[in-house]
């Protein structure tokens, strides 16, 4: 990887300035607020200054696409509540960023597209309502791969016409992966306490791994999709992105919940609200049974030593680790694309009509892009949009067969079969390879990923920092059956506490020369 790498620059002057809340987690910040040493306005102001210094100036990470003009007022309201003796929970007063396909007033919701640059939803998405009820301060919106990376097979991850190219903070000329690129970069660079991303297939866990943070893709139906610009109702979900498993657990607990607007949430078992943080314990690996997926990705020379080390850590902590495979691995890929094309057309047209957006249909969006090709398509086209527009209705037998086949192969006959065969609690594998150099117009040099089965099945996956290769982060992916978030989080937390693999980015121009 990166055999033509150049020198490593020194960190930018802005990065050299000490940031008082560097790597601070939710529990620490809450303790300081409880002690009267900190308030939400001060914390919010500090993050806004850091965004101005690092995201808009300095290394220009381009991870934040819009600042919430009401952020400071929201923080002042949370401070007033605290003084009055009302603390809503662990997220009270915590500044959080949202991916710019999640509706949150008074901001725009654009998916990175110029076609929606003037679109402001009239109400919050359901998950944003829940975050605000939990006391979070919505700091702003993050850049993303335009249309959540479902526009072209030759797209450049992290690029949108509105936000430009998001840059990896570990090597600015490298890619942050997508589509939740802005959320991952902002969290990695300490521009917010945490962020929310969305995933259809890899869009939370890939950027989490490539930017050295924790990312959880929940079971489809755990978090409402109401108010989120869609790709696929079979696979879409929002999820937390944070610098620690503990913070991701707290954010997930605030976001999750049943919502009449999203029928998928009716399948949620047990309580609608769950304290995921209460399950975290450092000895959770003792007695666990974990299957390690050995695949071509894990055999890459920069990944194999780190994966071997991760397996050794799991075993030393008392876990039984068994090498295993996924039955029928990747057999769902063709069917998955069919499902996404059909569901994208149906879901996007429904969203456009329900939310009264400036463009009224997928066909109108395609026409807009053609009319504004110089701005919208300078590097890649829109063949996925065009293929989706040509797709038939959801009653089409080809779609129905593809959906059933993909979910069966990835879920019951894939992940569930592997877990059942060896009585496993979870599967682990490298999340993806290290970040690649960004080359606009040439697409992504994507190294592959281990998260496809969980995405297609609608099952949860959790990426936790595993280490670094040539200064670039790599992640370890924990996967389980549906609704296994509590177990995955406690296993991931125990692994994280033993390895402490995350380290803040240096904002270097590139990776070290060999």
> Which residue ranges are poorly predicted, with pLDDT under 50 across at least 5 consecutive positions?
1-16
The biggest beta sheet is recorded as:
11 strands, mixed
Query: Topology as H/E string?
Result: HHHEHEHEEEHEHEEHEHEHHHHHEHEEH
Computed over alpha carbons, the radius of gyration is 21 Å
Structural class: alpha/beta
* Average of pLDDT: 95
C-alpha geometry: globular
CA-to-CA gap between the ends? 11 Å
How much of the residues is beta strand, in percent?
A: 5-15%
Helix content: 25-40%
Number of discrete helical segments? 16
**Strand order in the sheet with the most strands:** 1-3-2-6-8-7-12-13-11-9-10
Strand tally: 13
Give a concise summary:
It is built from 16 helices and 13 strands. The protein has 514 residues and is of the alpha/beta class.
Fold and architecture overview:
The structure is a single chain. With 514 residues, this protein is an alpha/beta fold. The protein has helices spanning 13-16, 26-34, 40-56, 71-83, 126-133, 181-188, 205-210, 245-255, 304-316, 333-355, 362-371, 373-376, 383-389, 397-421, 452-457, 485-499; strands spanning 64-67, 95-99, 137-142, 159-160, 164-165, 194-199, 214-217, 237-242, 289-293, 320-324, 426-430, 461-469, 472-479. The strands form two sheets. An eleven-stranded mixed sheet has the order 1-3-2-6-8-7-12-13-11-9-10, with helices on both faces. Strands 4-5 form a two-stranded antiparallel ribbon. α3 packs antiparallel against α4 (71-83), α10 crosses α13 and α10 (333-355) crosses α14 (397-421). It is globular.
């Amino acid at each position: 990887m990166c055999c033509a790498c150049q020198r490593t620059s020194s960190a930018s002057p802005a990065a050299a300035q000490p940031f008082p809340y560097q790597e601070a987690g939710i529990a620490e910040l809450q303790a300081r607020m409880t002690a009267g040493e900190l308030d939400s306005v001060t914390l919010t102001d500090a993050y806004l200054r850091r965004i101005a210094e690092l995201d808009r100036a300095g290394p220009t990470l381009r991870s934040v696409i819009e600042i919430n003009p009401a952020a400071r007022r929201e923080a002042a309201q949370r401070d007033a509540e605290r003084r009055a003796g009302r603390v809503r929970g662990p997220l009270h007063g915590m500044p959080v960023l949202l991916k710019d396909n999640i509706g949150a007033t008074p901001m725009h919701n654009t998916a990175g597209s110029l076609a929606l640059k003037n679109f402001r939803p009239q109400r919050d998405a359901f998950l944003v309502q829940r975050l605000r009820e939990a006391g979070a301060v919505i700091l702003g919106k993050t850049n993303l791969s335009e249309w959540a990376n479902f526009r072209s097979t030759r797209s450049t991850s992290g690029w949108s016409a509105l936000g430009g190219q998001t840059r990896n903070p570990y090597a600015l000329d490298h890619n942050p992966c997508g589509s939740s690129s802005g959320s991952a970069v902002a969290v990695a660079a300490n521009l917010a306490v945490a962020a929310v991303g969305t995933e259809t297939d890899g869009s939370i866990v890939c950027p989490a791994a490539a930017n050295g943070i924790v990312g959880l893709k929940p079971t489809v139906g755990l978090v409402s999709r109401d108010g989120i610009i869609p790709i696929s109702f079979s696979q879409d979900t929002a999820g937390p992105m944070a610098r620690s498993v503990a913070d991701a657990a707290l954010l997930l607990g605030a976001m999750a919940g049943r919502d009449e607007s999203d029928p998928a949430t009716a399948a949620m078992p047990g309580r609608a609200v769950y304290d995921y943080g209460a399950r975290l314990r450092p000895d959770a690996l003792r007695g666990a049974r974990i299957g390690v997926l050995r695949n071509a990705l894990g055999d890459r020379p920069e990944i194999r030593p780190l994966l071997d080390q991760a397996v050794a850590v799991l075993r030393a902590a008392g876990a039984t680790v068994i090498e295993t495979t996924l039955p029928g691995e990747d057999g769902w890929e063709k069917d998955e694309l069919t499902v996404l094309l059909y569901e994208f057309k149906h879901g996007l047209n429904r969203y456009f009509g329900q939310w009264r957006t400036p463009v009224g249909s997928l066909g109108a969006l395609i026409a807009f892009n053609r009319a504004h090709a110089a701005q919208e398509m300078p590097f890649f086209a829109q063949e996925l949009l065009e293929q989706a527009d040509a797709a038939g209705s959801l009653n089409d037998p080809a779609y129905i067969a593809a959906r059933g086949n993909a979910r069966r192969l990835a879920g019951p006959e894939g992940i569930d079969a592997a877990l059942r065969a060896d009585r496993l609690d979870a599967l682990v594998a490298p999340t993806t390879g290290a970040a690649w150099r960004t080359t606009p117009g040439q697409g992504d040099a994507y190294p592959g990923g281990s998260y496809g089965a969980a995405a297609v099945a609608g099952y949860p996956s959790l990426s936790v920092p595993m280490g670094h290769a040539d200064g670039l982060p790599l992640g370890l992916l924990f996967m389980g059956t549906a609704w296994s978030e509590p177990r995955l989080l406690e296993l991931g937390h125990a692994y994280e506490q033993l390895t402490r693999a995350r380290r803040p980015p240096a904002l270097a121009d590139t990776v070290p020369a060999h």
